[in-house]
Structure formats: structure tokens, C-alpha cells
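User: Please fill in residues for this 174-position structure.
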């Protein structure tokens, strides 16, 4: 049915993802269906809605992230069950939430902070320092898919905020 390495999808599984609302959301509106680097693709696509979100007041921004987080738990739970794998690489809505958290310090900052936030988030998401790796191993289902990326996003946001503050870039909470 599915490769043990969680990297491949059968044509039937692809169809299941793109034809169900939960699958479509979980795979990041199709961005997780690329053949390689699904998480990176999801993180890149997440920047598109962020370009709109960055103009929201910070409490509204946080509310949007929280709502997508909750919807993501449901979508990844359903899609993971359909695929028979808890955290398949194609499920990238967690990348959207994590990337949006990582980019909070960039909402008022120059364009290069978006690039730095993207790189920092990918480093924390792929590198999985403690407690990210611990959470990734312990939590299962939709919550497990989402939580490790939230923490990676928080780590990246802190790192980006410290970098921005060090060089005098305006931050949204100043």
C-alpha cells in the first residue's frame, strides 16, 4: 500500500488526498504532493498566504494560526488514517503553521528577514533539536504531526527575533 519509508504515494493515495477536504488541507493544498522535499515545498507555499496575513493585527494573525493549527490536527488525523501512516511526508499543513509562526518577527521587517525566517524554520524542522525530536517521537496522530512544527516555528521565531533586534530591525511587538 505505502512504502515503509513514508516517502511515496500510490496513485490511489494521491487521488484520496486531493479529492477529500481533509486530504487537500493536510497536503497543503497540493504542495505536499511534489516528488521530493515536500516539507520545503509546503514551507515555500506557506509564504503566499503569509504575504496577506502579515498585514493583520498581531492578535488576528495569532487567531488565524490557531484556527489553521486546529483544522490541521483534524485534517492530518483523517488523511493519516486514509494513508495508513501517521506522519507521511505529503502532509505539510504543519509546515504552513510552523512557517507562519517563524515569520512573526518578519511582519514589519525587510524582505531578507522572510528568507532568514524560512531558512531558520527549515533548519529547526529538519534538524529537530530537543524537544522537537522528542515530541516528534512521542506524539502521534494529527496532534503529533502539527506540534513539532509549532515548536520548530517558535525556535525559528526566537532566533529571527534575536537576529533582527541585534541589527536594529523593527519588530511587530515594539
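Assistant: Residues filled in for all 174 positions:
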Amino acid at each position: 500500500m505505502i512504502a515503509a519509508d513514508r516517502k511515496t504515494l500510490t496513485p490511489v493515495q494521491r487521488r484520496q488526498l486531493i479529492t477529500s477536504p481533509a486530504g487537500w488541507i493536510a497536503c497543503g493544498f497540493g504542495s505536499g504532493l511534489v516528488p521530493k522535499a515536500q516539507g520545503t515545498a509546503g514551507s515555500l507555499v506557506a509564504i503566499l498566504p503569509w504575504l496577506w496575513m502579515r498585514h493583520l493585527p498581531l492578535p488576528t494573525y495569532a487567531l488565524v494560526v490557531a484556527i489553521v493549527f486546529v483544522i490541521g490536527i483534524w485534517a492530518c488525523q483523517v488523511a493519516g488514517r486514509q494513508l495508513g501512516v501517521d506522519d507521511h511526508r505529503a502532509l505539510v499543513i504543519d509546515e504552513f503553521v510552523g512557517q507562519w509562526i517563524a515569520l512573526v518577527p518578519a511582519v514589519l521587517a525587510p524582505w531578507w528577514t522572510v528568507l532568514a525566517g524560512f531558512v531558520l524554520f527549515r533548519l529547526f524542522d529538519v534538524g529537530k533539536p530537543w524537544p522537537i525530536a522528542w515530541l516528534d517521537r512521542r506524539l502521534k496522530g494529527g496532534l503529533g504531526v502539527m506540534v513539532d512544527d509549532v515548536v520548530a516555528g517558535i525556535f525559528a521565531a526566537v532566533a529571527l527575533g534575536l537576529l533582527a533586534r541585534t541589527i536594529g530591525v523593527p519588530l511587530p511587538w515594539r
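For context: The chain has one domain: 11-166.
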